[in-house]
# Entry
Amino acid sequence: MSKPLTQQDRMFVLTGAGVSAESGVPTFRGAGGLWRGHRMEEVATPQAFQSRPDLVWQFYSERRKRAESVFPNPAHHCLVQIEEFLGDRFFLCTQNVDSLHEQAGSRRLAHMHGRLMQTRCSRQSCRSTPFADERLYLSRAEIPTCPQCGALLRPDICWFGEVPFLMDRIFEQLRVCTVLLSIGTSGVVEPAASFVRMAHLNGARAIYVGPEEPANSMFFDEVVLGNAGEVLPRLVKELMRPADQ
Ligand code: APR
# Structure
């Protein structure tokens, strides 16, 4: 049984594709990890966007379409319960670009890989700001251009080879956390794969939840095997129980 949280604890939660799996959002690796025969690394890079913007937008348009019919699952709701319990001592960092955490009610949330439902200019030097966008772009002719500089618009997502968003805030939270809870992430994509090691070096207790051991499992104090939607309700109860029980 996991030790209950105390008034001194600060929790850093890291979520990956697995937390949304039970909502019907496919994970990246493992079964079903290919899209029309392409590996993710072939459609989620700046180079792919340069050579085939239509293909990249088709990929993200399909994901936007699918997002209309998915809803938060018990794992997303459990994280809101812990946030309500800990208040400002809670921080949620997600690698997911879906909006299921905010739909469930999470507030102290950082999308390190961006958001599916946002679009921005593809020119790095352009000062225009990303904007909310749920539209689908299925052909080259449909892809809009930036009203400020004329470059093609792209999904507001961190691709392979790009620097994730909000890293200053994330590193600060990793430095101060006493408990790191990682859910449904295979532990192979950096920098998120190293978060557990960083928190662990600072003395934090680290817990992993997912059906398989992650690649970085050696840095966790507890690995709880199972689907997040089934494991988390039990785990959260254990973490939030009074210290004398
Ligand atoms: N509950 C919890 N975990 C689950 C569940 C579930 N119901 N189903 C699957 N998983 C686990 C798998 O065992 C796997 O370890 O979720 C993990 C999903 O791993 P990946 O598909 O590699 O996803 P993730 O680690 O989030 O990928 C990181 O890689 O492609 C990039 O930018 C993309 O954000 C993504 C990043």
